[in-house]
Design brief:
Length: about 500
């Protein structure tokens, strides 16, 4: 190992037989494939001078490392890469400073790397860590690669503790298998955070993925993934033909409260299995785009309370429909772009399921988003649904008055109804008065206009305009009651139309 280090070569102790070289599930390795952890630490912390024309580097493959690797507080200057290696005891990297570190397909009982500082990359793909990973307040200069990592929980039921993690560029954590809580609270990521195809399970705890207050400068992916050729990450490309994909699975709560995402949050082909007190919490997140198309609605509560989204991309089957399973209080979105057909009737039902107790704000927000996209007709339908929902909360008299406004002018959002009702009443009145005798004049010695049943009925209906017929004739008996009814109905139509117009003007201002 010492000679390989000074020469910058890889010490490869693999036999070439896959079943014997497998560090994760293979048999015990003999002593001739074993190096002491203390010798590895000596090379990394106090490296010898490299051979002339060479760059010293510790590169091991198929090596068993016995003892506990203690590097805490040290500075690692040489390049460090381990492939298909096996550690007997936990690896201690607290407060270590290093350039780049690559551990590929290694068995690591536990990795403790709190406050680790790496100026380059940190790679842990395909590793098995049965005792959990601690990376609290670690700083990674460029990329953090965790693809196909398998991690199990520690004694505190936490699999990956990376609160306060800072990564300069991307975090690729695709096709992972995590049992226990994956905590990224207050983490800051300069590029994307991709968990495509990963499975995060913590059914007995509160959260499987706890990323409250996380900041992602580009995109968060909670979607399907696949094993790309050559071990590369899929990125934003589509899977090649014939390649099997794997859905993102979250068995336990998801928490992104107060998260900030510079480009988008993509939740596509994701399965959420929630316990009785677990939930998908996106409270107060901010992102230009939320793509919420998991394919199947989560089994528990989904909360977007206080979230601010530029564009909402969703589908009817993506949302819970049971009462109390969806919270949209204070949810602000500027536009809608449904991934599939989302009928307005279903969209209004979506609002109703999110508001067991009536509140006007979700309806007004939906109407504003529809108006912004040019759908004024649908926006009026949403506001009409709001008034009908509000009517359910009123007293008896309020419900009657609201019903009259709904039937006559649709709360002002269907003003054509007033003209229709006016025409119907006018026709009924004109026919009635035409079939009866001419009434006596109100003033036999004064001016008497020509009797016109149509003008007389219209004058009774119009509450302000005087056509000279209403006050010129004196009705008696049943005709007097008919005239009074037409006058009353005319005033009611005018009042409801004025109330609707006032509501429209108030909305416009």
């Amino acid at each position: 190992m010492w000679r390989s280090f000074v020469a910058g070569r890889t010490l490869d102790l693999r036999t070439g037989r896959a079943e014997e070289d497998d560090p994760l599930a293979g048999p015990e390795w003999p002593e001739e494939r074993t190096v002491r952890a203390r010798a590895v630490a000596e090379l990394l912390l106090n490296p010898p001078a490299p051979a002339p024309g060479r760059v010293g580097a510790l590169k091991l493959a198929g090596v068993r490392i016995s003892g506990r690797l203690m590097l805490s507080g040290g500075t690692i200057a040489p390049y460090f890469q381990l492939d298909d290696c096996r550690f007997d005891e936990p690896v201690m990297l607290q407060e270590v400073r290093a350039g780049s570190m690559r551990l590929v397909r290694c068995l690591i009982p536990r990795l403790d790397a709190a406050r680790l500082q790496v100026t380059g990359d940190l790679h842990l793909p395909q590793c098995l860590v049965p005792g959990g990973i601690r990376m609290s307040d670690a700083q990674i200069g460029t990329d953090l690669l965790l693809n196909q990592l398998v991690v199990r929980r520690d004694r505190a039921s936490r699999a990956i503790g990376a609160d306060g993690l800072v990564v300069g560029q991307d975090v690729d954590a695709e096709l992972m298998d995590v049992t226990g809580e994956f905590s990224l609270r207050s983490a800051r990521i300069g590029g994307r955070l991709s968990l495509r195809g990963s499975s995060v399970r913590n059914p007995t705890g509160r959260y499987a993925l706890n990323a409250a207050r996380v900041t992602v400068e580009h995109t968060l992916y909670l979607s399907a993934g696949w094993d790309a050729f050559g071990g590369s990450t899929p990125g934003d490309t589509s899977p090649p033909p014939g390649v099997e994909t794997k859905d993102f699975v979250c068995e336990g709560g998801l928490r992104l409260d107060d998260g900030r995402f510079g480009n988008a949050v993509v939740v596509t082909r994701a399965r959420f299995r929630l316990g009785e007190e677990q939930q998908v919490s996106l409270r107060r997140i901010q992102t230009p785009e939320l793509r919420w198309t998991p394919g199947r609605a989560p089994t528990g509560l989904v909360s977007l309370s206080g979230a601010r989204v530029g564009k909402l991309v969703d589908a009817p089957a993506s949302w819970p429909t049971a009462p109390g399973r969806l919270s949209l209080r204070g949810f602000v979105y500027d536009g809608l772009a449904p991934a599939v057909d989302f009928p307005l009737r279903t969209r209004i039902a979506w609002l109703r399921s999110a508001t067991p107790e009536y509140t006007s704000e979700p309806y007004e927000r939906l109407a504003a988003a529809l108006r912004a996209s040019g759908d004024d007709t649908e926006a009026r339908e949403v506001l009409l649904a709001k008034q009908r929902r509000r009517r359910e909360t009123l007293s008896g008299a309020g419900r009657v008055w609201g019903w009259i406004q709904d039937v006559t002018v649709g709360y002002g959002y269907r003003p054509g109804r007033a003209a229709v009702w006016m025409g119907v009443l006018w026709a009924i009145g004109a026919v009635y008065f035409a079939l009866h005798r001419t009434p006596p004049p109100a003033d036999s010695n004064g001016y008497q206009p020509h009797w016109s049943p149509a003008l007389y009925a219209l004058d009774l209906l119009l509450p302000v305009i005087d056509l000279g017929q209403d006050n010129a004739w004196r009705e008696t008996g049943v005709a007097q009651w008919v005239a009074s009814a037409l006058t009353l109905l005319g005033w009611m139509l005018a009042t409801t139309a004025a109330a609707g117009a006032t509501r429209l003007l108030r909305r416009g201002t």
